[in-house]
Amino acid sequence: MTTRAKNTICLWYNGDAEEAARFYAETFPNSSVDAVLRAPGDYPAGSEGDVITVEFTVLGIPCLGLNGGPAFKHCEAFSFQVATADQEETDRYWHAIVGNGGEESACGWCRDKWGISWQITPVALSEAIADPDRAAAKRAFEAMMQMGKIDIATIEAARRG
Q1: What is the pTM of this model?
Q2: Residue 120 CB coordination number (10 Å)
Q3: C or N terminus of the chain, fewer CB within 10 Å?
Q4: Comparing 125 with 44, which gets the higher pLDDT?
């Protein structure tokens, strides 16, 4: 018997939850595809053997991918925020998501090809906009507002003034 987390994020997919889960498992550390549940018989929207749900983990967070069909779409009201240590890690995750059919957005946000939003957020950015020197924080924030993918060197330069 599988041990389940008390709280799991459920994400709605249009038939491709397993593909998404496998991409996340290949892209992010501490991520895995944990279980795939297939329909035990035919049902109104599908056939026996179709993938109904996929249990997966993204960066240690338990998730359930539900192949619910085209009725609902993802939006920026939900996103995964990934704290990155440096520009190399920021670039790697950004390019993995955008380069796999995703799209760029603003201020460190991007969307994967399934419509899930991701905030690829360098720790340096979080520290800069929390700087007790409010003028430095404002400069860093204003620099971020001009970016798609976050450029740490530009954020740090803006912070310094």
Answers
A1: 0.92
A2: 25
A3: N
A4: 125
Looking at the DSSP assignment, which residues form a beta bridge with residue 61? 58
| CA–CA distance, 93 with 84 (Å, rounded to integer) | 9
Percent helix / strand / coil, the chain, rounded to 5: 30, 30, 40
**Residue 54 DSSP SS3:** strand
> Residue 9 forms beta bridges with which residues?
63
* pLDDT number for residue 5: 79
Give the domains, in start order, of the chain with CATH numbers.
Answer: 7-71 (3.10.180.10), 74-161 (3.10.180.10)
Q: What is the rounded CA–CA span in Å between residue 145 and residue 126?
A: 13
Distance (Å, whole) CA 37 – CA 57: 15
Q: What contacts 107, CB < 8 A, 6 or more positions away?
A: 144, 145, 147, 148, 150
Residue with tokens 């991007």: 110
Confidence class of residue 122 from pLDDT cuts 50, 70 and 90? very high
Contacts of 159 (CB under 8 A, 6+ apart): 128, 131, 136, 137, 139, 140
Q: What residues contact 66, with CB distance under 8 A and at least 6 apart?
A: 10, 11, 12, 13, 17, 52, 53
